[in-house]
């Protein structure tokens, strides 16, 4: 009898520890305070030449996500990338998607916002961007609020990098929006 009670107590202890560990994994995501009812919509991984660059997860209280509700895109990096490179690649993609619709002055202003929002990233580091309808967006680095942008045009252009139908990596876009499972994505080697 004592042996059985001892096993139950150890079992309960392990369940409690697992709960604490799993809850702790999400406790440092301060962006979740902004969208407490957000749930995972989809996820995927960006690979270039077979090398993983980052894993991405899209969270929203509604599916599919829309510009009428807040949502969050969280990237976990698998390699070191300098802040200036993150900014320049983001601006190149916005320029590719919007062309003449975005003025050089606007791009320069957005460069300044991204320089404030981003840091050099190391493997395992997370950057989350939260879309706030009619307000703009917030950037979180390592779970902590780093910068807030009060520009809805910038927010839409930034998220278009991943979510626009013309996104450079359509397979990743589809997985983020929950449209493709990993089996279908295997052919693209981006799952």
From TrEMBL:
Q: InterPro entries per the record?
A: Chalcone_isomerase
Please indicate which superkingdom the organism of origin belongs to.
Bacteria
Recorded GO molecular functions are: isomerase activity
Q: Which UniProt keywords apply?
A: Isomerase
Q: Indicate the segments forming the Chalcone isomerase domain, all copies.
A: 71-178
- What's the short name of a Pfam family annotated to this entry? Chalcone_3
What is this protein's record name?
A: Chalcone isomerase family protein
The organism is Azotobacter bryophylli
Provide the organism lineage as a comma list.
Bacteria, Pseudomonadati, Pseudomonadota, Gammaproteobacteria, Pseudomonadales
């Amino acid at each position: 009898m004592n042996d059985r009670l001892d096993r139950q107590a150890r079992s309960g202890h392990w369940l409690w520890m697992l709960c604490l560990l799993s809850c702790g994994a999400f406790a440092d995501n301060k962006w979740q305070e902004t969208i407490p009812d957000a749930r995972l919509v989809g996820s995927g991984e960006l690979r270039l030449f077979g090398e993983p660059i980052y894993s991405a997860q899209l969270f929203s209280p509604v599916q599919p996500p829309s510009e009428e509700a807040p949502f969050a895109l969280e990237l976990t990096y698998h390699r070191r990338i300098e802040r200036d490179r993150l900014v320049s690649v983001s601006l190149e993609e916005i320029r590719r998607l919007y062309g003449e619709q975005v003025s050089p002055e606007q791009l320069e202003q957005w460069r300044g916002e991204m320089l404030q929002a981003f840091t050099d990233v190391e493997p395992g580091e997370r950057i989350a961007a939260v879309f706030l309808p009619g307000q703009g967006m917030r950037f979180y680095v390592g779970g902590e609020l780093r910068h807030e942008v009060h520009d809805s045009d910038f927010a839409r252009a930034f998220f278009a990098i991943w979510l626009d139908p013309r996104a450079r990596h359509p397979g990743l876009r589809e997985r983020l929006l929950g449209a493709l499972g990993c089996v279908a994505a295997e052919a693209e080697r981006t799952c």
